[in-house]
Amino acid sequence: MASKSFDTYISNLKYDLPAGLVVFLVALPLCLGISLASGAPFFSGILAGVIGGVVIGLLGNSQLSVSGPAAGLVAVVISAIATLGSFEAFLLTVFIAGFIQIAFGLFKAGIIANYFPSNVIKGMLSGIGIIIILKQIPHALGYDKDIEGDLAFLQIDGENSITGLISAVEHIDIGATLIAVIGLLVILLFENPKLKNISKIIPGGLAAVFAGVFVNEALFKTIDFLYVGDRHKVSVPVPSSVTEFLGFFSFPDFSQIQNPQVWVFALTIAAVASIESLLCIEAIDKLDPENRVTNTNRELIAQGIGNSISGMFGGLPITSVIVRSSANLNAKGKTKVSTIFHGLLLFGSVVLIPGLLNKIPLAALAAILLHTGYKLAKPSIFKQMFKNGRYQWLPFVVTILAVVFLDLLKGVSIGLGVSIVYILYGNFRNSYFFNKESHQEGDTIKIRLSEEVSFLNKASIRETLDRIPDNSNVLIDASNSLYIDFDVLEILKEFIEIKAPIKNIKCETIGMKDNYELKSDKKVVSISK
């Protein structure tokens, strides 16, 4: 089995290495941006990306998800640093949070991923896609006031996703815009079936970055109004010596171990990071063309180990991230090798080639992310959801709006709440409903019970029975029922033996078992045939 897995990884290197390079290019500015947004050192985001790629990539079970610092935890990080008074005390919370996540995995908490409805997951993905588009259009136009990695509707620069678009249109940089357009054209060109063999070797996103750097450095450099300057490029910290590089690392302040606030923030980080990771993994599994299923408990343990190591050496909290995972998928990544390779590249970039990476225009990366956003929120997804009926599309739309205007966790929570309401409503409506006004005395009323009659059907069945008029004939058909909840059985028994005779209703049953044994309280309710 191990040999087979190794052979699979080797055979897919031609896909995974180029995909890992694309993910690295996308992740690099995001890591730096999230560090800046969190008020943390630049290197803390890079380190979290390295550990998320290499450590979690090696230990985790997901083949396509990519982990790193997440925008969803920025507010928590800012609050923790301010409350605890130092970055080192904050690192202790990340270190402890990792062990809490490991405990989550050992106690099988990953099972909650199975309870996220598909309409909410699809809504979350489409919402993230829309956010990516809203946030990347300004970068594509050369308006880089908002930092990379900021996914919140209310931006750090005082604007929001909508006003940021308006400001971008008012401050268009022609050079950056041309680079973004060229990048998008290159990506679309590489999706042409005729270039299938080339795109296997060089993903469209990678070609778009090469094209952007070439156009800017070779063609635009001598034209002032077209050349994209340093403030519109990737900005990797450049260490001047080994000593300066080693100074990038920070370590937890273990003297704060008895501080209750440390444990409160650790639990908060563990909970938020775990939920975000499970949501991302569930979403990416649904997009995986090979239909692989991730062991979520093992993934939580891997995430926990990654966070403990990140906290130990000065990194930000880590989660599985939709943006990077989607970029990996779109770049034709096949196995976790692409994730691991992207982490190695992040580390190598800071050590070996920071100056070279600082030539990449943000507009070129915006082209990749705009394409990724479109893939997540393309119109065909909306059309399919609307075809599935309102029980599917309403929670889907609510989730999208909440994710875009609030944040991922709040959006999913609201979408999940709406979905639960519709499940309850659907269970109520799907039971037999008798309209008293449309029946006359003497009519035979047939009540067909579903295959599984749960407590959720209790209210609708009681209402149905109470609406049956006097002097009617009633046929209760349980031929298809494999399970009937104890509460429902009691309602049926009460109607057949007490209420029906009082109202002179003749009641007959079909397919009803002599008795249904109920696990709770070891009670048995018998229904007379």
Structural descriptors:
transmembrane helix; two-stranded antiparallel ribbon; membrane; STAS_dom; SulP family inorganic anion transporter; Transcription Regulator spoIIAA; 22 helices; mainly alpha; 2 domains; SLC26A/SulP_fam; 9 strands; single chain; 529 residues; three-stranded parallel sheet
Gist of the model:
This protein is mainly alpha-helical and 529 residues long. 62% of the residues lie in helices and 6% in strands.
Largest sheet entry: 3 strands, parallel
What is the averaged pLDDT score? 88
How much strand? 5-15%
What is the radius of gyration computed over CA atoms, rounded to a whole number of angstroms? 28 Å
Biggest sheet: strand arrangement: 3-5-7
- Shape label: elongated
Low-confidence parts: 516-526
Distance between the termini: 57 Å
The residue fraction in helices comes out at 55-70%
Number of domains: 2
Global structural class: mainly alpha
